[in-house]
Amino acid sequence: MNLHEYQGKEILASYGVTIQRGKIATTPEEAVKAAKELTEETGTGWHVIKAQVHAGGRGKGGGVKLAKSLDDVKKISGEIIGMDLVTPQTSAEGKRVHQVLIAEDVYEPGEVEVEEFYMSVLLDRAQGKNMIMYSTEGGMDIETVAEETPHLIFTEVIDPAHGLQGFQARRIAFNLGLSGKAFKEMTKFVSKLYNAYVGSDSALFEINPVLKASDERIIAVDCKITLDENALFRHKDLEAMRDIREENPTEVEARAVGLNYVDLDGNVGCMVNGAGLAMATMDLIKQSGGEPANFLDVGGTADAKRVEEAFKIILKDKGVKAILVNIFGGIVRCDRVAQGIIDAKKSMGDAMNVPLIVRLQGTNAEIAKELIDNSGMDVQSAIEFQEAADKVQAVLA
After folding, report:
1. List of long-range contacts for 34-40, beta carbons under 8 Å, 24+ apart
2. Does residue 331 have a known ligand-binding role?
3. Strand pairing partners for 356?
4. Cα dihedral sign, 93-97-101-102
5. Domain of residue 25, CATH code
6. Are residues 88 and 119 in the same domain?
7. Of 119, 153, 262, 396, which cross-links 134 as Cys (Cβ 3.0–4.6 Å)?
8. C-alpha closest to that of 329 among 262, 389, 272
9. Catalytic residue list contains 206
10. Do 313 and 296 form a contact (C-beta atoms < 8 A)?
11. What pTM was estimated for this model as a whole?
């Protein structure tokens, strides 16, 4: 589950991480009010207006701008709120901006040179351990840094039995070329950041940039946080931060009825039980010349109602030219799935007018075949996996 920048910073601040302070606003008037309050609290003269959407590269799309007066705050906020922000991480249509973060200016000049760093905390899947990835090249796309100057990217792998050790935090500060007060501040920053990552059960923390300010404070200027959805039952307060306006509407609807669904750009709808079989089904569709239109796992307890809901969700995608149902009846019974297919056809009528290929194997497969054969439906049945894929290829030809 992705969070907005201001929500991520709330989490960081709760663990003692120093952040670029700011206030959220949904109208230009609220933005001016927030800027005045921020000036009183922090003394900042200029303000940074940041679009709050679930996408990186906001600055490149005009979603991050500096305001040097209250008039600028009102004008810029009015331009950003309501715009469809297009960034390298959005579709061509962009994302609608519903709110902006009015943030303090932390780049004020001083005796010490301001520096930007990159830092993220994530799981190293190869080693099964968390790691901190960091670089002296803050403020840049980390993909560009990895491609052009890979020697400037460092990693620190954390032993889960011991957690982040003091010497590791100091090594990070040393590799970033820090000394004196900034060195000490960075070691504290790293430790608190890692505690926040573990404590919130997150899948990703990305702070780009981490700023060494002119007073040598270490500050999280930006913040991207992705929470582990499997752990949200432990964090009801964090779950409440979900902004469904930023998510695919069809995926939101599927989640509401208990379906594991991911929207894709393709022409063959998939309905499968089990994530592994779903991935294999998508691969076979690809090899047969088709393109998967979705990932859809109806789960191990699929009943007729859930199968009917799955069909409705698949057919919301007007690009679907065929549907492949590939069910292995282990826990789920094939006759239940067959009944769901029949009920869906009766309920949806002409809306379910694309070719349907069905492969049901396992528990009560014979009963399922009999149900479908006696339903009068125009369904192409298959027994073998490859046979199902070949039938998909034929209907797309």
Report:
1. 34/102, 35/67, 35/70, 35/73, 35/102, 36/70, 38/102, 38/103, 38/104
2. yes
3. 323
4. positive
5. 3.30.1490.20
6. no
7. 119
8. 272
9. yes
10. yes
11. 0.83
The domain that holds 310 is classified in CATH as 3.40.50.261
Cα 11 to Cα 84: distance, rounded to the nearest angstrom: 27
> What number of other Cβ atoms are within 10 A of residue 323's Cβ?
25
With tokens 């500096």, the residue in question is 66
Alpha-carbon gap, residue 307 to 328, rounded angstroms: 14
With tokens 């192409």, the residue in question is 380
Give CA separation, 252 vs 4, 263, 305, 311, 315, in Å. 17, 11, 18, 15, 15
Give catalytic status of residue 118 as yes or no.
yes
CA 260 to chain centre: 15
Q: pLDDT by residue (tens digit) across 41-64?
A: 999 989 999 999 999 889 888 999
- Same domain, yes or no: 193 and 258: no
Residue written as token pair 């339903």: 375
Same domain, 263 and 339: yes
Q: Where are the beta strands (DSSP E) in the chain?
A: 22-25, 47-51, 64-67, 84-85, 95-96, 100-104, 115-124, 129-135, 153-157, 202-212, 218-220, 224-227, 260-263, 268-272, 294-297, 322-329, 356-362, 380-381
3-state secondary structure of 56: coil
Q: What is the pLDDT of residues 153-195, one digit of tens each?
A: 999 999 999 999 999 999 999 999 999 999 999 999 999 999 9
Q: Which candidate in 6, 118, 134, 197 is catalytic? A: 118
**Overall residue count recorded for the chain in this entry:** 397
60 is in an annotated binding site: no
Residues forming beta bridges with residue 338, ordered by sequence position: none
